[in-house]
């Protein structure tokens, strides 16, 4: 469904992605692993058509279509959802406003505010709270809920569990599993290796802008050499 082929991305002259090739099939959860600064966010932004970075070589294909040259909003409209790193919200908008502001009135999609509140009961309870009145976990839930409102077929999540307590990480894992059951594909950037492997079907390891390892998630979990070599996990 999503095919990234030989992608090279730059910040100015800094060459950050060095020919990344990966794919995500329909309904598949794929983890993108790698230590800090290896290019995970750069890859996600490149796929979403967000600048910077600038893609200078390679292509992103989505359901057979080459996305090169499309604006970020055009890419999002084709069914790609994005949960940015660091849960960017509007401090003065309420939970409900966050979920409605993005949704073009003319588009009727499967995801409604009511459905989002069913999925995230915690947000339903906080519907009148503003962005700056939410806890870290609630902000993360809202960031995921927002990404769903455009009815994506694939969601790219950039470290959704960052800074969350273990119980919230587990809750998020449950949500990812539910989305997968609903048929969504997910490309999941994670620092939390065990959380990623708990929900992913496959994983790629990125190192200095290159894919250096690809495996089924279940195999990586039992592969201490890879864990130590690429991820610094012992
Ligand atoms: N806006 C920018 N301008 C210049 N260099 C950048 C910019 N954003 C990131 N970089 C550099 O590009 C490289 C990859 O950064 P990126 O944010 O993709 O890493 P990451 O794998 O997402 O790391 P983390 O796990 O810390 O989020 C790093 O060396 C970083 O310093
Ligand atoms: Mg990042």
TrEMBL record:
Belongs to the ABC transporter superfamily. GO terms for molecular function: ATP binding; ATP hydrolysis activity; branched-chain amino acid transmembrane transporter activity. This is ABC transporter ATP-binding protein. Keywords: Amino-acid transport, ATP-binding, Nucleotide-binding, Transport. The keyword ATP-binding applies. PROSITE patterns: ABC_TRANSPORTER_1, ABC_TRANSPORTER_2. It holds the Pfam family ABC_tran. The keyword Signal does not apply. Residues 2-233 form the ABC transporter domain. GO terms for biological process: L-amino acid transport. It comes from the Bacteria. It comes from Xanthobacter dioxanivorans. InterPro entries: AAA+_ATPase (IPR003593), ABC_transporter-like_ATP-bd (IPR003439), ABC_transporter-like_CS (IPR017871), BCAA_Transport_ATP-bd_LivF (IPR052156), P-loop_NTPase (IPR027417). PANTHER family: ABC TRANSPORTER ATP-BINDING PROTEIN, HIGH-AFFINITY BRANCHED-CHAIN AMINO ACID TRANSPORT ATP-BINDING PROTEIN LIVF.
């Amino acid at each position: 469904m999503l095919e990234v082929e030989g992608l090279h991305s730059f910040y100015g002259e800094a060459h950050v992605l060095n020919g990344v090739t990966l794919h995500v099939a329909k309904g598949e959860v794929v983890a993108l692993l790698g230590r800090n600064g290896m290019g995970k966010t750069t890859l996600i932004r490149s796929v979403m058509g967000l600048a910077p970075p600038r893609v200078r070589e390679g292509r992103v294909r989505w359901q057979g279509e080459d996305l090169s040259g499309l604006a970020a909003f055009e890419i999002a409209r084709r069914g790609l959802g994005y949960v940015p790193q660091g849960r960017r919200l509007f401090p003065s908008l309420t939970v409900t406003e966050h979920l409605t502001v993005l949704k073009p009135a003319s588009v009727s999609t499967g995801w409604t505010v009511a459905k989002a509140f069913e999925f995230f009961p915690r947000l339903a309870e906080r519907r009148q709270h503003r962005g700056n009145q939410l806890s870290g976990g609630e902000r993360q839930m809202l960031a995921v809920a927002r990404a769903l409102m455009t009815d994506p077929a694939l969601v790219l999540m950039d470290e959704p569990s960052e800074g969350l307590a273990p119980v919230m990480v587990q809750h998020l894992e449950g949500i990812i599993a539910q989305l997968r059951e609903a048929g969504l594909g997910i490309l999941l950037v994670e620092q939390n290796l065990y959380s990623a492997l708990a929900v992913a079907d496959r994983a790629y390891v990125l190192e200095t802008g290159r894919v250096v390892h690809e495996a089924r998630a279940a195999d990586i979990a039992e592969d201490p050499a890879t864990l130590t070599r690429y991820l610094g996990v012992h």
